[in-house]
Write a structure and sequence with these properties.
The complex is a heterodimer of chains A (111) and B (112). Chain A is 0% helix and 59% strand. Chain A is an all-beta fold and 111 residues long. In chain A, strands 2, 4, 5, 9, 10 and 11 form a six-stranded mixed sheet that branches. Chain B contains no helices and eleven strands. The chains are: A mainly beta (111), B mainly beta (112). Chains A and B meet through strand 4, strand 5, strand 9 and strand 10 of A and strand 4, strand 5, strand 9 and strand 10 of B.
Chain lengths: 111, 112
């Protein structure tokens, strides 16, 4: 069974700082990996999807990398803003759209 | 464009009652799935469907039933609610298995 771990569980940074969120998984036979954002009491918003054949994806201030052989992915957030405060979830995709989720990193950006 | 719509948003049930959580998507996605989110645990897959008429079990299927009679709808049925089913339930859809997944806003269910 795929196990997904996210470190750290919580992170607090001052506004403007660059930061990295980490995700590790135990089975490298994956289809894709997706990063989500979840605001309190809300659903999940897709941030980036990396296919298993890709090494990274970028969207605005976000960059996600994937290293299947080592079972790791990172989400890099540049120039953090208070509006980035949320929980970030890593999900490893299996066939048929079956995702295995980590427990998330709760990010607080202090103005 | 509504995306993935879940109803109701909140529900309180008594132990032993049954109910159906509704999920509808208007993106003509083939793949749909149900997850539950519990404190301290990642989202866990309950059931999923790769097309109308096709469903399969996920990681935690016991106590839940699904069917997929149309592309748009994927209801989740609780047969006899138990306090252990208190959770937040999310429905997701994607066009195919290796494409971006879209999630609904969730249904917060409390079983007393």
């Amino acid at each position: 069974k795929q196990e997904v771990t996210q470190i750290p569980a919580a992170l607090s940074v001052p506004e403007g700082e660059n930061l990295v969120l980490n995700c590790s998984f135990t089975d490298s036979a994956i289809y894709n990996l997706q990063w989500f954002r979840q605001d309190p009491g809300k659903g999940l918003t897709s941030l980036l999807l990396i296919q298993s054949s890709q090494r990274e994806q970028t969207s605005g201030r976000l960059n996600a990398s994937l290293d299947k052989s080592s079972g790791r992915s990172t989400l890099y957030i540049a120039a953090s803003q208070p509006g980035d405060s949320a929980t970030y979830l890593c999900a490893v995709g299996n066939t048929g759209n079956q995702f295995y989720f980590g427990t998330g990193t709760s990010l607080t950006v202090i103005p | 464009n509504a995306g993935v719509t879940q109803t109701p948003k909140f529900q309180v049930l008594k132990t032993g009652q049954s109910m159906t959580l509704q999920c509808a998507q208007d993106m003509n996605h083939e793949y749909m799935s149900w997850y539950r989110q519990d404190p301290g645990m990642g989202l866990r897959l309950i059931h999923y469907s790769v097309g109308a008429g096709i469903t399969d079990q996920g990681e935690v299927p016991n106590g839940y039933n699904v069917s997929r009679s149309t592309t748009e709808d994927f209801p989740l049925r609780l047969l006899s609610a138990a306090p252990s089913q208190t959770s937040v339930y999310f429905c997701a859809s994607s066009w195919r298995g290796n494409t971006e997944a879209f999630f609904g806003q969730g249904t917060r269910l409390t079983v007393v």
